[in-house]
């Protein structure tokens, strides 16, 4: 399951929680689940996630948790990184690249051909420079998800 589709589908179920002021933290916790490198960590993370949010004793949060658990933990649970090692987080890397080009280089506007070609040449040049291994500021491709220490320590308090 593509993580993009998980996020897209849960968005409408998070809308009733906007006034509660918890949507950003819920999204952050769900993202932390998504970067689980293996099934054991994902299962432990989901247990801690549900425990943390059920302690809020908020009916709206509980409604979301019921949906989230039934749909994304029981029915379609394979949306975390470790479920498909070696594959992109989204099910279409071309769409993801296209989205970045639109977001960063065209500002989601249709460009005249000449301007588009200039932008494309600039984009390729910049991307190539950033990936040059001999460059001091080289951006390397990540082969495993990075989980910051703050996430580990926060998770520990719920175990």
How does this structure look, described?
The chain has 159 residues and is mostly helical. The mean pLDDT is 86. The chain has helices at residues 3-14, 23-34, 39-54, 59-75, 93-106, 113-130, 149-157. Helix 1 runs antiparallel to helix 4 (59-75), helix 2 packs antiparallel against helix 3 (39-54) and helix 3 packs antiparallel against helix 4. The protein is globular and about 55 Å long. The chain has a domain at 3-87 and 149-157.
Task: Please outline what is shown here.
The protein has 159 residues and is an all-alpha fold. The chain is 62% helix and 0% strand.
Residue runs with pLDDT of under 50 for 5 or more positions: none
Strand content: under 5%
Helix/strand class: mainly alpha
DSSP strand tally: 0
The major beta sheet can be summarized as: none
Overall pLDDT score: 86
> Judging from the principal axes of the Cα atoms, what is the shape?
globular
The helix content is 55-70%
Measured on Cα atoms, how large is the radius of gyration? Answer: 19 Å
